[in-house]
Structures are given as structure tokens and as C-alpha cells.
Amino acid sequence: MVAVLIDPDSSEDSQLDALVFHPHFNQVDFLFVGGSLVTDGNMSSCLARLKKRTDKPIIIFPGSPNQIDETADAILLLSLISGRNPDLLIGRHVESAHKLKQSGLEILSTGYILLDGGRTTTVSYISGTTPIPQDKPGIAAATALAGCQLGMQLIYLDCGSGADQYASPKLIAAVKNEINVPVIVGGGIKTRADLEAVFAAGADVIVVGTVVEKNPEFLTELVLAKNSIKIS
Ligand code: 1GP
């Protein structure tokens, strides 16, 4: 499956139109909305404008509690398990627990694993955490396994938005081999070959953000990648 990540700070009406009215938008399964740093007010405005345009499931990908918004369909309740920042492991969750309960959002408990994508990304800077090196698939696999043992329903392997490198197929395969919950993979995916490599390694959901924001025509590459996986 494929999710397109929308940054509420870069969601002009013209950009949303270019995405949702693209002939291959039907290939997109979910919309993720959020980010490490979102300007106050832009989340609710972005969600309202998306809801007017599409009935695809909208899932909040929150960088902070102020991105909780009941007009979405669900939320990835992220715990940054690759890091050792207690705020992002449990602190923010405690602060937002009641608000989240009242929101009625479907809660998807997600172990979020930040990988080294070759450059400092906004998420690594803002979270103050060290990404897992890509040549240490064993650390990523053990981290994912621990997340599942703590009851997390999903594991998200992320190199961060705009990363130079995406999650290596070897690392994805090592994680998949260790756990039975769906694995979301994102960050730094830029070409059809990247999509095919990540699908082939076993990703259950691929997230694309920057590349679609820059060029909605990338959705055509998505169709070609999906078809090529089906054929092979
Ligand atoms: C980032 O996984 C997402 O958290 C998407 O990354 O913007 O690099 O596609 P990109």
C-alpha cells in the first residue's frame, strides 16, 4: 500500500488539487498529514481542505500534540523507540492522552524508528535523537521487536523527510524477518527503482512526501512500480 505524506505548511490549494485530481490518485491508499514542525492553525486548515476534495482515509502523522485534530480519521500514535528522549517515548503521550480519548480518532500505536538517511533531517534535529546507522540492521530489528513486545501495532522505518538515502532493503528485510506487524517505510524515496526495491524488501506501506510535493506526476511512477511488482 502507499501513503502520501502532506506537510500542512506546504499545502496550497493548487498543490492539493494537483494531487487529488491526478489521474492516478486512485493508487494512493492513505493520506498522512503532519510533520516535525507545523505552524499553528495549518493542520486544521489543511485537513478541512483535504476533506472537501477526497474521502480517502486521512491519518495524522504528528510531530507534536498540537497536531491532534478530530477531523482526521486516525492517528499514528508514535513512540520514537530508536531514540532515548523520554518526552518522545512517553511524555507527550501522557500530556495528550485525554485530548486523544475525547477526539474519537482511531489510535494506531506505532513504534517509530529513525534511520540514518545520509544527512541531518528535520526530525533528527527536532527530536534530538541519533538515528540508527543503516549498516546496523541488527539494532533496527531488535528495536522493532522490542516495540512489538511492548504492544505496538505498527513499525515505521523512517529516514526522515528529504533524506538522501532511503531505508536499505537489507535492513527492511531484517526487520520484517523479526516481527509480524505491518512495516511502514518512508523517507528519501525518489524514483520508481527506489519504490520497487522497498516493496521487494517487504515494506507493507510505503510513504512518499517530498517527491510528490515537488512533482505530482510521480504518481505515474507509482503505478508502474506496483505493476512491475505484480508481474515479477
Ligand atoms: C517522512 O517518511 C516521510 O517522515 C516521507 O519522506 O518526504 O522524503 O518522502 P519524504
Number of strands: 8
**How do the strands line up in the largest sheet?**
1-2-3-4-5-6-7-8
Order of helices and strands: EHEHEEHEHHEHEHEHH
How helix-rich are the residues, as a percent range? 40-55%
Give Rg in angstroms. 17 Å
The fourth-level CATH homologous superfamily is: FMN-linked oxidoreductases
CATH topology (fold) name = TIM Barrel
The main pleated sheet reads as: 8 strands, parallel, barrel
For the termini, the CA-CA separation is: 17 Å
Based on Cα principal axes, name the global outline: globular
Q: Based on the coordinates given, report the CATH architecture.
A: Alpha-Beta Barrel
The CATH class = Alpha Beta
The parts where pLDDT drops under 50 for at least 5 residues are none
Cofactors and ligands present? SN-glycerol-1-phosphate
Average pLDDT number: 96
Number of helical elements: 9
Provide the structure class.
alpha/beta
The portion of residues forming beta strands comes to 15-25%
Instruction: Domain count, please report it.
Output: 1
